[in-house]
UniProtKB/TrEMBL annotation, chains A, B:
Domain of life: Bacteria
Protein name as annotated: Cell division protein ZapA
Organism name: Vulcanibacillus modesticaldus
Function, in words: Activator of cell division through the inhibition of FtsZ GTPase activity, therefore promoting FtsZ assembly into bundles of protofilaments necessary for the formation of the division Z ring. It is recruited early at mid-cell but it is not essential for cell division.
Gene Ontology biological process terms from the UniProt entry: division septum assembly; FtsZ-dependent cytokinesis; septin ring assembly
PANTHER family: CELL DIVISION PROTEIN ZAPA
Pfam families found in the cross-reference section: ZapA
Cellular component GO terms held in the UniProt record: cell division site; cell septum; cytosol
Location of this chain's protein in the cell: Cytoplasm
Length: 83, 83
């Protein structure tokens, strides 16, 4: 993919429109937006009293947790490959 | 770590208190909250007109993007190890 070519996209997340810009393909960017939308809906369903800001922050916390867990596994694999 | 032992923690993210619950250590949970707080501040600085909800949603999108990029690299490593 051409790194200089920016894709601009409007996506819907939790009923709101967002303009996102990135080097990735439109499909990838839609997939990311869909992932965040799914997580927000899950968190909203389990915590019906939370406002949208809190739902979004807890979604970010949730995804960051997944990131750091995967990072730990990734680092272990890199170590294995280096041995 | 004992998987049954839940840690409850109050953390500050973007000036708001959040109660988070998890199996991970308090240090890990604070690190995750700090990561989200940092990202929100970065996005808020680059986009001063955004409200807190949009900042939080875009933070979640940003972290999800990092997750899926890492996932791709991780899957490639797994393939390499299987060969």
């Amino acid at each position: 993919m051409n790194e200089d070519q920016k894709n601009k996209l409007t996506v819907m997340i939790f009923g709101q429109q967002y303009k996102i810009v990135g080097n990735a393909s439109s499909n990838y960017m839609r997939m990311i937006a869909g992932h965040v939308d799914d997580k927000m809906r899950q968190i909203a369903e389990s915590n019906p009293r939370l406002d949208t800001t809190k739902i979004a922050v807890l979604t970010a916390v949730n995804i960051a947790d997944e990131y750091f867990r995967l990072k730990e596994e990734y680092d272990e694999l890199v170590k294995l490959l280096e041995e």
